[in-house]
Design goal:
about 300 residues, alpha/beta, 11 helices, five-stranded parallel beta sheet, 12 strands
Length: about 300
């Protein structure tokens, strides 16, 4: 068996693969050369940066499995894979808790102005607390969750524990614990908006100028979904005008972003490097879970149903 890794995995996951297969590693996660490397592979595995596209899939008629060690599949051409009868493996449940924790941490960090206060303390500006704008407390505020899947629902539970009122908009999920509203009403009523949707044609750029105009004055936006869900030009204008009090995100439209990205000029922008799933336990779990299911496919055994993409 031959497996092509477009990106590194947790060492324990790589050891599992190497015990049963010949493992090859791509020099770069996304490169035109990777299609040739995949030509005689039985499986191709990536994480968040490597792309498994139609060209790679068409280069190998014997490919049995493609996999992403993660919860989303926007960097895998699932349509092309299914058309060729190739199994698509991922780990949708492995990062639920850690991503929800990260979203809640970003919400708290942005609202309570933790990064900027930390910088002032380290710079000897203790008394700036008397002159700077006050922090944004969360208790009694309204949180609007866009997309109430596994992660969104967990964020809602955490927010409830913080005494926030939770609204949500979704195409499918229904949860009687929280108030379901339209996307437009959610934007109008929420003090904090947290995004938890997949990236697809209907969600790309959904947070555009019209969406920001519809939001409350001084609201906070949190994004732990995908960067391209937010129109960054419109976001910059919303921060400049003060329409948004703060923006906190683990994702950006271009990753890594250029060193002169306009968002870096805003103290009220709290940014992390797509690291929500890189907490020690979650990272091991998602990589090992993916590796185990890829090996099951290659050994002719049924993978865990929850780790097989069945379409949306």
């Amino acid at each position: 068996m031959r497996i092509l890794l477009l990106e590194s995995l947790h060492l324990e996951a790589e050891a599992l693969l190497e015990a049963e297969a010949e493992v090859r590693r791509a020099a770069l996660p996304s490169s035109p050369d990777n299609a040739a490397l995949a030509k005689d592979a039985d499986a191709v595995i990536t994480r968040g940066r490597g792309t498994i596209d139609a060209e790679m899939l068409s280069a190998n008629s014997d490919l049995k499995c493609v996999a992403r060690a993660g919860s989303g599949l926007d960097n895998v051409d699932v349509k092309a894979a299914v058309e060729r009868g190739v199994n698509v493996i991922y780990a949708p449940d492995a990062v639920t808790e850690t991503t929800a924790e990260h979203a809640a941490a970003l919400m708290l960090a942005a609202g309570r102005r933790i990064p900027s206060w930390t910088a002032r303390v380290k710079n000897g500006e203790w008394d700036s607390r008397q002159t700077e704008p006050p922090a944004f407390d969360l208790a009694g505020r309204t949180l609007g969750i866009v997309g109430l899947g596994r992660i969104g629902a967990r964020v809602a539970e955490i927010a409830s524990a913080l005494n926030m009122h939770v609204l949500y908009s979704t195409r499918s999920s229904i949860d009687a614990r929280f108030e379901r509203v339209s996307f437009e009403e959610l934007l109008r009523r929420s003090d904090v908006v947290s995004i938890h949707v997949d990236l697809n044609d209907s969600t790309r750029g959904m947070m555009d100028a019209a969406a920001f105009d519809a939001m409350k004055e001084g609201a906070v936006l949190v994004n732990c979904a995908r960067g391209a869900v937010v129109d960054e030009s419109a976001l910059i204008q919303a921060l400049k005008s003060g329409k948004l009090r703060a923006f906190a995100a683990d994702v950006m439209a271009d990753e890594p972003p250029p060193p002169d990205h306009p968002l870096f000029a805003f103290e009220q922008a709290v940014l992390t490097p797509h690291s929500a799933a890189l907490a020690e336990g979650a990272y091991r779990r998602l990589c090992v879970e993916t590796a185990e299911n890829v090996l099951r496919v290659l050994n002719g055994e049924p993978p865990n149903p929850r780790n097989v993409w069945r379409g949306s």
